[in-house]
Design goal:
The chain is α+β, with helices and mostly antiparallel strands. The protein has two domains: about 200 residues, no CATH class; about 120 residues, LytTr DNA-binding domain (OB fold (Dihydrolipoamide Acetyltransferase, E2P)), CATH 2.40.50. The chain contains eleven helices and 13 strands. A five-stranded antiparallel sheet has the order 7-6-5-9-8. Strands 12-11-10-13 form a four-stranded mixed sheet, with no helix packed on it. Helix 4 packs across helix 6. The longest helix is centred in the middle third of the chain and has 48 residues. The protein starts with 18 loop residues before the first strand and ends in a 6-residue tail after the last strand.
Length: about 350
């Protein structure tokens, strides 16, 4: 059986089948499973009313009215909720004891996973029946026969032991419980697949970002009065054009980057860290302290100490992109141009 090949998941080889980690978070959410059971029960009940309406009519007459029949129909789902709760807990325990932590994403792998659950699903009825039938006894008997029928003998023979010796009940639950269990497992498996796929995509994006960052320069070789020196880009606050060179404003002073245009330097640096605020300047996000409006639609970028005295103009055409680059909502302060 060939493994399922998923596109765009960054897999270099397909010789080894993909494994989906099982979180079982959907099964753990009893409310969601109860909603699923309610939907199935409602569908079956409505179908019976449509296909066997005369039978339901006769049954309502025997129970002295439709109200009693409807109350009985509604209360019948409560014992099944007990069965569902037991099924949920047994599935979680079973996965923990085996243990089953992942499923191969192949037809054979999924088939084996489903088959491994069959022994449990076929025995759930025999484990859970006493609890289900006890709840059913206290809910249905008073409606059908009155409170006088709540006797231990009736409970023991008809509810506690009775279901095990009635082939119809055993056969019904032997079909219904596996069907419900596989519905729960299928929903949970589909949800786990999408979670796994999203994690794979997220990991790929992070890997691409790491590779992308690795291609950018982390240091620059610059010229000082003492000769050439190497400085870290993370310690550079500002790079300005000084044709045909560039001036690098570093924590230790101002250096010259020879024979490099600002456009060439911009291509060397990580755009997540450096932003070109105008034709003649690049700023480092680490040292940006916001920006101010100085009138006439002019803006100036504020830098953190020791570069707070640098005047860095922000091009109006780049304002929107600059805001997005900062990824924070910077409140624009309005000052008079005379301050600058």
């Amino acid at each position: 059986m060939k493994p399922v090949i998923l596109p765009n998941l960054g897999r270099k080889t397909v010789s080894e089948p993909i494994k989906i980690p099982l979180t079982l978070e959907t099964i753990q959410r009893f409310g969601l499973m109860a909603l699923l059971l309610t939907a199935i029960y409602s569908f079956l009940t409505i179908s019976l009313y449509i296909t066997h309406f005369e039978f339901k009519k006769e049954l309502a007459a025997k129970l002295n009215g439709w109200y009693v029949l409807i109350c009985l129909e509604v209360t019948m789902i409560i014992p099944e909720m007990v069965t569902l709760y037991g099924l949920q807990k047994l599935l979680l325990i079973y996965h923990r004891l085996i243990p089953i932590r992942s499923v191969r994403l192949t037809a054979l792998g999924v088939g084996r996973y489903y088959l491994s659950l069959l022994p449990l699903l076929l025995t759930v009825f025999f484990i859970i029946s006493p609890f289900t039938q006890t709840v059913r006894f206290f809910l249905e008997v008073p409606i059908e026969s009155g409170f006088d029928a709540l006797t231990f003998t009736h409970y023991f023979h008809n509810f506690l032991i009775g279901p095990y010796v009635r082939p119809v009940i055993v056969a019904t639950y032997s079909l219904v419980i596996p069907f419900l269990g596989y519905c729960m497992i299928s929903v949970s498996l589909i949800r786990d697949f999408f979670v796994w796929r999203d994690q794979q995509k997220k990991s790929q994006v992070e890997e691409r970002q790491i590779e992308k960052v690795a291609n950018y320069a982390t240091s620059l070789t610059v010229q000082s009065n003492q000769g050439q020196t190497v400085i870290h880009c993370s310690e550079v606050a500002l790079i300005t054009s000084d044709s045909p060179n560039c001036l690098v404003h570093h924590l230790q002073g101002t250096y010259k980057l020879c024979h490099k245009t600002l456009t060439e330097v911009e291509a060397m640096l990580d755009p997540e860290l450096f932003f070109r605020v105008n034709r003649g300047g690049l700023v480092n996000r680490t040292f940006v302290d916001g920006y101010v409006h100085v009138g006439n639609n002019n803006y100036i970028v504020n830098l953190k100490p020791p570069f707070q005295h640098q005047t860095v103009s922000l091009s109006r055409t780049r304002l929107s992109e600059f805001r997005h680059w900062l990824e924070v909502s910077v409140q624009i302060q309005f000052h008079s141009p005379s301050r600058f």
